Automatic annotation (TrEMBL):
Cellular component terms per the entry's GO annotation: cytosol
Top-rank taxon, per record: Eukaryota
Gene3D superfamilies, sorted: P-loop containing nucleotide triphosphate hydrolases, Phosphoglycerate mutase-like
Originating species: Eumeta variegata
Record's keyword annotation contains Nucleotide-binding: yes
Protein name: 6-phosphofructo-2-kinase domain-containing protein
Active site location: H228 (tele-phosphohistidine intermediate), E297 (proton donor/acceptor)
SMART domains on file: PGAM
Length: 456
């Protein structure tokens, strides 16, 4: 078997196969997000984007007719360009390229397989998406009509008619993968993960991908995220610990429950961490709750319970190292952002298959979770602003998520410390503390005042 000759260390080209509206693009982007999160640098090369570059505006379904020679030439050229860029990406030292095209004929697959294995010496895996579930198919079609750049300039009626004809052209040409005659490694994914079958699939990366695809279900509709209400530690600028909510935090818990009963669906479920402040925040929400240890806040090790000022005073070098590389910095006896990303993996996989979940989490944990769904660059995560007393709603739109942030009207401190300009070990204390947000020194009896007016 040819695929066996290629070393496990060689990069991998994934080529999607299937008719339009079978969920290929959604699968491509979800898989890319998953692989990137797992340290495999991955990029999607969308064939239809290349096609659109050759046509100022999408004309009609006509270019997909098998006997339209000009149309076929444009489509072949676009596919070649997408594959060339994918191969270039792999040659640059990246791990995985996903070629999001239809690859519906045996001849196309054979050519691509030979080019990748024999000419480039790279690994290749085909993923065929099949969808027999009419409801899912309808949903996919509606998403294409709403979000595909091809249909932006058409009325809804025209777009429906055009997509239907495009599908007919493709159906006439489609040759499903047949393992008895095609010498290729492939995975067949039916109904977005309902059934997954593998044929001649070898290798570490491929096995991981197979595992991910087997656990995948249709995309979630709506997910909510919020940090816990302001805690006593937040109010006095201390990190970590397991303190209770401040009076304002308790008020947020009540307002949050009211807000959700007005906006969320009745089958909402709530996931909290195992820490008091998240459980107290969820207390008034009339929904089933689950406390998950993996959602606990970043463990700050020897700095747990300190203020940033105390960290600078007692461990100035550690404080500077953290500012130099906050993503990778691990607190002595504690964790780094990379560590929490690793422990969040199973939660994120589970969440991808859920709908109507509220996650009540913590600053660092929610930065990582939101960063995952929004496909942010890893280095951006530790500085993302996820304020207290704010509900973040993610709605799946195709393979992307739309973000809506709702600040609820309950005062709280700001806990977001920006990266200071000077991160050197020899910096002055003033330089190290310049971006520390204001907070109370001790928990005041009246927490309804602005911290900048009362203390420091
Ligand atoms: O300050 C609140 C908090 O949740 C701490 O418990 C945690 O250590 C910190 O945020 C994480 O934020 P950063 O990584 O910006 O210090």
């Amino acid at each position: 078997m040819r695929a066996r000759r290629i070393s496990q260390f060689e990069p991998l080209l994934i080529a999607l196969v299937g008719l339009p509206a079978r969920g290929k693009s959604q699968l491509a982007h979800r898989l890319a997000r998953h692989l990137n999160w797992n340290g495999e640098s991955t990029k999607v090369f969308d064939c239809s984007e290349y096609r659109r570059r050759h046509m100022a505006l999408y004309g009609t379904h006509d270019i997909f007719r098998a006997d339209n020679l000009q149309g076929s030439a444009v489509r072949r050229r676009s596919a070649r360009e997408a594959v060339t860029d994918a191969i270039l990406w792999l040659k640059e030292g990246n791990s995985v390229a996903i070629f999001d095209g239809t690859n519906i004929t045996r001849e196309q697959r054979q050519e691509l397989n030979g080019y990748c294995l024999d000419s480039m010496g790279f690994r290749i895996l085909f993923i065929e998406c099949v969808c027999e579930d009419q409801e899912l198919l309808e949903k996919n079609i509606i998403e294409i009509l709403h979000y595909s750049a091809d249909y932006k300039a058409m009325s809804e009626e025209e777009a429906v008619d055009d997509l239907r004809k495009k599908l007919e052209h493709y159906m006439r040409q489609y040759e499903p993968i047949d393992g008895t005659v095609e010498e290729i490694s492939f995975v067949r994914v039916e109904n977005m993960g309902e059934t997954v079958t593998a044929h001649k699939v070898y290798g570490q990366k491929e096995s991981g991908i197979l595992g991910y695809l087997s656990g995948m279900r249709t995309s979630p509709q709506v997910l909510y995220f919020t940090r816990h209400g302001e805690s006593e530690f937040n109010a006095i600028g201390r990190i970590g610990g397991n303190s209770s909510l401040s009076a304002r935090g308790q008020s947020y818990a009540r307002v949050l429950a009211e807000h959700l009963s007005a906006v969320a669906s009745r089958d909402l479920r709530v996931w909290t961490s195992e820490l008091l402040r998240t459980k107290q925040t969820a207390a008034h929400i009339p929904a089933p709750k689950r406390a998950i240890r993996a959602l606990n806040e970043l463990d700050a090790g020897i700095c747990e319970g300190m203020t940033y000022e105390e960290m600078q005073e007692q461990y100035p070098q550690e404080f500077a190292w953290r500012d130099q590389d906050k993503l990778r910095y691990r607190y002595p006896w504690g964790e780094s952002y990379i560590d929490i990303m690793t422990r969040l993996r199973p939660v994120l996989s589970a969440l991808e298959d859920e709908d109507n979940i509220l996650v009540v989490g913590h600053q660092a944990v929610l930065r990582c979770m939101l960063g995952y769904f929004l496909d942010l660059k890893l280095d951006e995560l530790p500085y993302m602003n996820v304020p207290l007393h704010t509900v973040v709603k993610l709605t799946a739109r195709g393979y992307k998520y739309e973000v809506e942030m709702t600040k609820l009207p309950v005062e709280c401190v700001d806990t977001h410390r920006k990266q200071p300009k000077n991160c050197s070990i020899s910096r002055t204390t003033a330089d190290a503390l310049v971006t520390v947000p204001s907070h109370y020194d001790t928990l005041p009896s009246n927490l309804w005042q602005n911290p900048s007016e009362t203390q420091l």
